[in-house]
Amino acid sequence: KQKGVGVFKIIWNIISRLLTVLIIIICLIIGVQKVTNNKESFFGYRIFRVQTGSMIPKYQIGDVILVKKQDVDKIKVGDDVTYLGESSSVKGILITHRVIDIQEVDGKKEFHTQGIANNLEDPVVYGNQINGVVQFKMPILTLLCKLLNNKYIFYFGAVLPLTLYIL
Fold it and tell me: Omega before 139 cis (within 30°)?
């Protein structure tokens, strides 16, 4: 009976340490992004929240996604990329859309992107605009963000317990 408890304790310690490291890495990624206003990444990784329904059904509004910097020559049709809009109505806006075509014009790659729920293609995107390729959705972070954005859950789950702890 004691042996089983000891094994469980070892496994629990390993899992809790891995989770702690993962949480620290996520916090570092978010911290670097906040401090640099999304201009820098943490070892090529960035975390973003989906703001619109342009990628439904793959990504819902509020989903948290992990994006990894990638060499533009490795980006292919079908990849979902996050880029900084530079023209017209998308100027200065971070957008996550699917690559639907890639062309080379005057030795420069042009990426044609479009939201999967959109009827119209985006303005042409160049490699220097691309922050990276979406690696995956982060459902636990998505849930946490949604919970913290609910004022009642935020108050009763964070503010009230912290106030009681301080008192």
Answer: no
Tokens encoding 162: 């912290």
Count Cβ atoms within 10 A of the Cβ of residue 38 and give its class: 0-12 exposed, 13-18 middle, 19 or more buried. Answer: middle
Whole-model pTM over 0.90: no
What are the residues facing 98 on neighbouring strands? 80, 114
Residue 52 CA from chain centroid, whole number: 14
d(CA 128, CA 165): 48
Averaged confidence pLDDT in the chain:
86
Residue 119 φ then ψ, to 5°: -90, -25
Report whether pLDDT(134) > 90.
yes
The single-letter DSSP state of residue 14 is H
Q: For 38-80, how does the pLDDT look when each residue is reduced to its tens digit (9 = 90+)?
A: 777 778 888 898 999 999 999 999 999 999 999 999 999 999 9
Q: Tell me the DSSP string of 24-80.
A: HHHHHHHHHHHHTTTS--BTTEEEEE--SSTTTTTS-TT-EEEEE---GGG--TT-E
